[in-house]
């Protein structure tokens, strides 16, 4: 174990025990200052004078929040924070001393927090505008209802009903339900906006953002949480008198000894350094090098699983992110069913009725046993995944593959400047395209048994792809990464190309089969009949395709 890991574990252990004290503090200003002072002390302990970096980036964002237009503050913050992160990592090229590894982790989390709070400020500003529009629409709808009841719609002629009585036609509005599309009424939309205003809208002061940035929970390596989640903790909106953080912490710590033991045992027999040495290329076979990636990536997972569990427990003992289960909290976001949360807001919850899903950062089982790369990634570093999905992916108006590529590029840039991050993460969009195509063309045509076999096969491919990309993520530099990949014939990328080529072949064969089937049906039923049109538009049975092929 390296010295940085010892410091990291020691600070996490202290934070977990300190959470028992912090959770007993009264809500308000005193709790804020205690959490901030502890966080600043941890930053100075691991960073020394390099603590100026997170302080400077925080000060700049405070100016953005205070003086910038709310319509653009999130863009200014995004450009500045990621630009400063770039300069921060290239400081050694300009003769500046390189910051410690833990300072890099702190700067990464500070970046997510500062950009995230600016997005929340922008969304709150947009929410206020939407509320004004909603109020106007609600008034207009009420006015229409009044006119309809009183029969004053002069521009809408009356028609005779089935019973022979005269009725007034209703005016078609945007609130009416369109066939095939669920549509909310104006009052329902307004109610939803009011709930978002109550639980999600923020209007922080400069000092509030400073406290949020340096709060000790998640200051080292996460998890990420929104400002509104932090505010709920400080104002006593989350948690409750029956919440037992220690019980939840012990539940989450149960698998930790297993992760630690596997990390040390497997890491002893399969060290990463061996993958960088000349012996593995000169004295061992191609098959051994292919297999060696799997235990190396396994050790990496055990290390991160242990770290993620400990960082979650820091938040758990402090009571951060403890919401009733009825609110359906999600990692990073917090409650998602605001109506259910608000309808029973006065109901006292027992300890088991709470959930810490808001700060749940890793789903170990899902990461290891989900059948696809897409599903596995969603279980990994889930709070950061939510940040990327909310603030990058969903903000873009572009085709899905482009959005995925930009999101993965942003993730790689956030992780660091090493080429290994880009080599691994920019491989992901190509894998996702192949996975999505086979799921659409092959898996949905299979029965229950066939789908189960298909999932086991894709799970095996997923783990090999993860191990393949993990070598780039761990080796970091381009030379050792390409040396290792070339020694196994760029197996991961080659597999993508082979599967893509085979997918194009399947697409070609199915396309020709569809054309033959349409021609055969036109011949059988005639091109002018309604029956022929109906049957051509129906999904093609698998048996008919086999006969034509």
From TrEMBL:
Transmembrane segments: 6-22, 34-52, 72-90, 419-438, 459-478, 490-510
Broad class of the protein's primary localization: membrane
GO biological process: lipid modification; phosphatidylinositol biosynthetic process
Residues of the signal peptide: none
Keyword DNA-binding applies: no
InterPro entries: LPLAT_7/PORCN-like, MBOAT_fam
Domain of life the protein comes from: Eukaryota
Membrane topology label: Multi-pass membrane protein
Pfam family, one: MBOAT
Cellular component terms per the entry's GO annotation: membrane; mitochondria-associated endoplasmic reticulum membrane contact site
Keywords tagged on the record: Acyltransferase, Membrane, Transferase, Transmembrane, Transmembrane helix
Localization per Swiss-Prot or TrEMBL: Membrane
Example GO molecular function: lysophospholipid acyltransferase activity
Pathway linked to the protein: Lipid metabolism; phospholipid metabolism; Phospholipid metabolism
Chain intervals with Basic and acidic residues compositional bias: 156-174
Positions of the UniProt region annotated as Disordered: 144-185
Family membership noted in the UniProt record: Belongs to the membrane-bound acyltransferase family.
Protein name in UniProt: Lysophospholipid acyltransferase 7
